[in-house]
Amino acid sequence: MPLASAIPEEVLYEILKLLVQQTSLSQTSVKALPSDIIAAALTCRSWLAVAHPLINQCLQRPFMSSAGLDLLELRRLHDLLLEARHLGLNYGEIIEDIDIIASKLWTRDVRSTSQESGGDKQGFADEVLESIASIMSMAPNIKALFFDFCDTDAFDIMFNDVIRLYSCLGPFCGNVQRLWILMDMSWKAWEYQLDCLLPHLTNLVHVEFLSGTPDIASVRALAQHTGIERAYFHRTVMTNLGDCIAGWPNLLQLHITESYGYNSFGLLNTIGKKCPRLRGFTCGDTSYYRHYTPNSPINYYMAKIVERCPDLTHLDFSNNQRLDDAFLERAIRTGRALRRINISKCTNIRAAPGGMWASVREPWPRLEYLNIYACEKISREFVERVVPVCSKLARIVLPNHLEADAGIIKVLETQGFREHAEGWERVVGSGMAEDG
């Protein structure tokens, strides 16, 4: 039998790569943690050199592809990381992201294994958490936490379970910058209880919430993280969202989509006053904006955000039914830094001929992308005015009635635009933009 070190490197690499593929592709086996590739790397120096790039590949998110959190495999991974550290190999430093799917802690995998150990389901879940924490204790570079509580089989997760999860993992999350939480909308009475976790996340800059209802204590804890730069709320019930944002003076990106339950006017007023560094704002397709009322204050508050945030470059208010020309007239005058504007499906923006918007001499001087798809009431005069003047405009997406307008097509072609799969795109180097 040949020595392990005698295997050609290119052959060995292909063999070891199978271990990584088995880890990433496993869907049913609970033996999906990156333990085997680490064990192979510790065989000898030559194997270590060949396996190193593969370890980097699969150890950054060690629990991402795991079909089940098997206690024995978790302990094995911990022991291998510890053995490697004793040899001077700090593989724990590679770990950057921690993915926790709640159903793997408290449902099928726990049930099957706890039955074999006398039915102590909760005790087994605690041991799993402790094993994960022991692995995290050797991982000083963890940058992101991903918690998935969205599983119809996991409705029996109780308040104390989540507290135990946060308290067990929290002490090892001092360098975490990103927090991502997914929940099921049907858990209307369920709360995040983030006040138990957030005090540990002293370097947090990025938060994402998908569904669910953050409780008041969690909102207050979030507001204490003044370093937040990016926040995403999707299908989230946020009655106190403004209280969070008021504590985030460094906010650069804010996305609110399909969310409801907040004071819209108060929220927008808070964003305009408290987030002067905002660069990107998405706020569309919410229940508050689906019913049109002429001269709605929403136009004033939306326009104030554009005016008060001088660095705002990306604006997405798609499917916002309450916006009209009152917003457009202010935004076209004050949005000097805007580069991307999406007001698609804002069906009450008309850009009426002769309106105040038309008197602006140099609208949106930095604009590169404009989406007015499905704005079926918008005037052809708007496009005739904006396209020649906005010399940096590279792409525009039109509503159907203007796509069929021969005069508009001529304007676009004169300015160097050609029809594209996604709207009209200006041909680079056409030189036509200078004619405007």
From TrEMBL:
GO terms for cellular component: SCF ubiquitin ligase complex. SUPFAM superfamilies: RNI-like. Signal peptide: none annotated. GO terms for biological process: SCF-dependent proteasomal ubiquitin-dependent protein catabolic process. PANTHER family: F-BOX/TPR REPEAT PROTEIN POF3, S-PHASE KINASE-ASSOCIATED PROTEIN 2, ISOFORM A. This is F-box domain-containing protein.
